[in-house]
Amino acid sequence: MALFAILFIAVVTLLLMWRLGKLSPGASYVSAAGLVLGLVGYSLQGSPNLPSAPVVSKPLPPVQLPAASAAQNNLIGQVGPDSQTLAQADAYFRINRPDLAARVIQGALNRDPNNPALWTGLGNALVGH
Fold first, then answer.
1. What whole-number percentage of the chain has pLDDT above 90?
2. What is the DSSP string of 4-72?
3. For the segment 9-34, what is each residue's pLDDT rounded down to a tens digit?
C-alpha cells in the first residue's frame, strides 16, 4: 500500500516539475530518471512496513561526588603539576571522556614515572575507559 502512495507522490512531483518548471523534454527525462532511481533505491533498501525499534540509551557515567574531589585534594594537594594533571583528567571524566583523561595522565607519567598519585589516577582512568 505504501508503494502506491510513493509512486503517486513521484508522479505528482514529476508533473509539477514539468508543468510549473517548464522543463524541456531532455530535462524532464533526466528528472524522471532521478525519480525512478530514487524509487528503485527505496524499494531495495527501504522498509516502511517494519515496526520501529526504540533506541537503547547509554548508561550514565558514574558521578564523582564533591566529597571525593575534596578528599583527593587533601591527599595530593592543590598546588603542583600532579594536581593540575589530575584536575584536568577529572574534567575529562565529567564530560564522559575517560580516554582523554588517560592520555593526559600518561603524558604526565612520561615526565614523572615514579609518581604514585599519577599511577592511581591512570588506574582510575583505565577503569572508566
1. 5
2. HHHHHHHHHHHHHHHHHTT--HHHHHHHHHHHHHHHHHHHHH--TTSPP-PPPPPPPPPPPPHHHHHHH
3. 888 887 887 778 777 778 878 888 88
Q: For residues 92 and 105, is the Cβ–Cβ distance under 8 A?
A: no
Q: In degrees rounded to 5, what are phi and psi of residue 47?
A: -140, 80
Phi, psi angles (nearest 5°) of residue 57: -80, 155
Q: What is the dihedral of CA 87, 92, 96, 99, to 10 degrees?
A: -120
Residues of the chain with pLDDT under 50: none
Domain coordinates in residue numbering, the chain: 2-45, 66-128
Extract the C-alpha cell encoding 28. 524532464
